[in-house]
Amino acid sequence: MGVTASLLCITHCLALPVIAVVLPTLALAEIATHRVLVLLVFLMGILAFVSGYKRHRKRGVWIGCVLGVGMLLTAVLLPEQLVSEALETVLTVAGGAVMIVSHVANARFCRVCLNCGEGGCGAV
């Protein structure tokens, strides 16, 4: 679910500038849409990463989550005077990509942990 949300976020970020040229009225809703998508990615990410971390205890997954969410939040929360459209796009795409990689790593560690037994997966 988290990978899907991150992919949707990247797709939105890459497609909206093209759509906004064709349909200028969509640009008015861009800020609200961007914030809602980041909030959804953040919430789904936290749910996925918390449950995964409880199984595998791999801190690297959390580092990816924090970096990805940090880039997304930076793109959304910094005032427009400080962040150009190009930088906002780079931060959003990079943050989404980091989240995808972290979700995939989280899922792989969880799959391995299902085969570990009751002892946990800290040694994997």
Fold and architecture overview:
It is a single chain. The chain is built from five helices and no strands. It has helices at about 1-20, 25-30, 30-55, 60-75, 85-115. The relative contact order is 0.18.
Present the secondary structure layout:
Elements: H1 2-22, H2 25-28, H3 30-56, H4 59-77, H5 85-114
Helix pairs in contact: 1-3, 1-5, 3-4, 3-5, 4-5
Task: Summarize the entry for a quick read.
The protein is an all-alpha fold.
Identify the notable features of this structure and list them briefly.
mainly alpha, 5 helices, 81% helix
Q: What is the arithmetic mean of pLDDT?
A: 78
Q: Work out the number of β strands.
A: 0
Radius of gyration: 17 Å
* Helical content (DSSP H or I, runs of 4+): over 70%
Low-confidence stretches: none
Shape: elongated
Number of helices: 5
| DSSP strand content | under 5%
Secondary-structure element string: HHHHH
What's the story with the biggest beta sheet? none
Query: What is the CA–CA distance across the termini?
Result: 24 Å
Which structural class best describes the helix and strand composition?
Answer: mainly alpha
